[in-house]
Recover the amino acids of this structure.
């Protein structure tokens, strides 16, 4: 199947520059998407946390979003953004990843805030905290672990969704996979797939560290 | 002469009126014709209740009777539909609810502690809301930790690192943070195991004796109500059934419902109204210091013709107990207990009696909440009281 008569190591050396370039590009796409996903998802989760009816609709809509195949979403993006001359490049990729991130981030924020025990909120209210104080001093800090789990979920998903970015000329590790398929080059497909997986694990691990760092100490102590 | 008399008489009446007026003002909490409906259901039905300054009032009744609702209307966590609530003569509806709540201590079951706050930050919650100076807060926290008998090293622990009883102590300290005059307590000891609950009751009573707050305490446990309350308000289906001093309720239940609530063992429960400290004696009690040797103790006991000696450390804390036992051939043996069974001075005779039955002792040492030795109680003394 493979007619290039050089060893895998040699091949890697040859492609090294390109590999690093696309890996960084992949990370870049994720890094640009993350703040947008947070800015939209977390406030929305907070907003719906005390409005169960709206919450149902929002969570339902974001679940539908998840069911759209990634490939179709990118195709849709190209068509919809074409009139603004943004159909190709990083814009459709970032929008797609932000849309896919919505469900885990909104849902986890919603759940996180609603799992803060009623008694604790009542204690805070009974001691004379205002609604704002209860939100910032009690609900938010106690929600961090669950919200962070949602963000991790979303971003690991984003790493794999970003593979399609190369189809809309945004680059990224998808280049190796799709070019590899086109050229029947197993090495390229393998390198792409493995790097996407490793990046996914890396992102997950990195966000776990962030999670540990931002979680209030009182929630982590051993009995 | 007669006019003089008249004016004196008038003055007397005036004085009396004034006294009466000031008496009216003495009520710290006044509830007047309170009604609260949840949809169709009437939770609280035209309820009136006055609480004097410094008294501990227990609200008791079956679940869903409206006792918690009544309490929560005082700090406006629940809005009353009809009626008046006055705190020191001022209607609570004239006070901003957030400000109002900062002046009222509030204790709920242990879940109310903020897990991401240290013990220090939990206790400092209300003082910080009131923007106290941080030095003043620090002093206050230390003072409160000492009051609830927690070591100052607890200040930087988190609630998850505490036992249930310790958490409850912190909860009480937190409610007392800004030294409120009124304290609302919603089944604060509900989630604590029975043994620790008794201990908490004792220290709670001792603390209340020091601080003399006006406390509204919701419970569904009649024993707790009798033991802790100065007065008991019995509520059924949103209506006040009986409101009186605990003893009066025990001896004169208003109706069958109250009788049933009190249970068959009313006379035994009356022992609950008697505190150990009123029956402590020091007659013939032998105490020795920690460094006394066994031989010295034995000699001392034989000389005084006693069989028990209590060992105290330099702070008068009870740390052990020697007791003599007749061994074979009239030889006497001396034994030592490192953790002698003891009772707290604020415990009730009722509990002391059951402790005595449980361990088979006719004589038990009494300590205060800091474990300081106070004297002993004899079983005979309790029987004397019971037969009265």
């Amino acid at each position: 199947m493979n007619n290039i008569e050089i060893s895998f190591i040699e091949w890697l050396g040859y492609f090294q520059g390109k590999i690093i370039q696309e890996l960084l590009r992949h990370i870049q796409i994720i890094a640009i998407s993350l703040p947008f996903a947070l800015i939209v998802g977390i406030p929305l989760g907070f907003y719906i946390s005390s409005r169960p009816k709206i919450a149902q609709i929002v969570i339902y809509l974001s679940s539908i979003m998840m069911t759209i195949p990634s490939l179709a979403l990118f195709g849709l993006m190209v068509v919809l953004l074409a009139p603004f001359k943004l159909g190709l490049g990083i814009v459709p990729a970032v929008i797609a990843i932000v849309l896919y991130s919505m469900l885990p981030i909104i849902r986890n924020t919603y759940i996180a805030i609603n799992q803060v025990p009623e008694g604790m909120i009542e204690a805070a209210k009974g001691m004379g905290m205002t609604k704002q104080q209860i939100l910032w001093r009690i609900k938010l800090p106690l929600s961090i672990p669950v919200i962070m789990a949602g963000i991790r979920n979303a971003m690991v998903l984003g790493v794999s969704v970003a593979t399609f970015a190369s189809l809309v000329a945004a680059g990224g590790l998808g280049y190796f996979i799709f070019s590899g398929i086109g050229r029947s080059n197993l090495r390229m497909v393998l390198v792409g797939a493995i790097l996407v997986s490793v990046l996914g694990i890396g992102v997950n691990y990195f966000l776990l560290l962030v999670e540990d760092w931002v979680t209030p100490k009182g929630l982590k102590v051993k009995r | 002469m007669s006019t003089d008399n008249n004016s004196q008489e008038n003055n007397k009446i005036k004085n009396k009126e004034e006294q009466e007026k000031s008496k009216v003002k003495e009520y710290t909490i006044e509830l007047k014709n309170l009604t609260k409906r949840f949809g169709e259901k009437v939770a609280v039905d035209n309820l009136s209740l006055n609480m004097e300054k410094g008294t501990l009032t227990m609200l008791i009744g079956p679940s869903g009777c409206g006792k918690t609702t009544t309490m929560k209307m005082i700090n406006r966590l629940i809005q009353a539909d009809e009626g008046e609530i006055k705190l020191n003569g001022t209607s609570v509806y004239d006070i901003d609810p957030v400000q109002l709540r900062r002046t009222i201590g509030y204790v709920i079951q242990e879940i109310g502690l903020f897990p991401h706050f240290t013990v220090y930050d939990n206790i400092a919650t209300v003082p910080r809301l009131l923007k106290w100076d941080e030095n003043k807060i620090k002093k206050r926290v230390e003072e409160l930790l000492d009051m609830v008998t927690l070591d100052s090293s607890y200040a930087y622990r988190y609630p998850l690192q505490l036992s249930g009883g310790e958490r409850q102590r912190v909860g009480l300290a937190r409610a007392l943070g800004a030294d409120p005059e009124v304290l609302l307590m919603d089944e604060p000891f509900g989630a604590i195991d029975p043994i620790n609950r008794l201990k908490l009751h004792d220290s709670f009573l001792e603390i209340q004796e020091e601080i003399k707050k006006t406390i509204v305490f919701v419970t569904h446990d009649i024993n707790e109500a009798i033991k802790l309350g100065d007065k008991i308000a019995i509520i059924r289906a949103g209506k006040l059934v009986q409101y009186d001093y605990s003893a009066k309720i025990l001896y004169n239940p208003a109706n069958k419902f109250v009788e049933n609530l009190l249970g068959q063992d009313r006379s035994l429960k009356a022992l609950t109204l008697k505190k150990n400290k009123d029956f402590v004696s020091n007659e013939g009690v032998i105490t020795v210091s920690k460094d006394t040797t066994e031989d010295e103790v034995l000699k001392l006991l034989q000389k005084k013709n006693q069989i028990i000696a209590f060992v105290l450390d330099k702070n008068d804390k009870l740390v052990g107990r020697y007791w003599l036992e007749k061994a074979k051939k009239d030889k006497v043996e001396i034994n030592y207990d490192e953790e002698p069974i003891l009772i707290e001075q604020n415990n009730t005779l009722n509990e002391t009696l059951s402790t005595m039955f449980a361990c088979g002792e006719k004589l038990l040492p009494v300590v205060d909440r800091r474990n300081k030795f106070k004297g002993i109680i004899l079983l005979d003394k309790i029987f004397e009281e019971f037969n009265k």
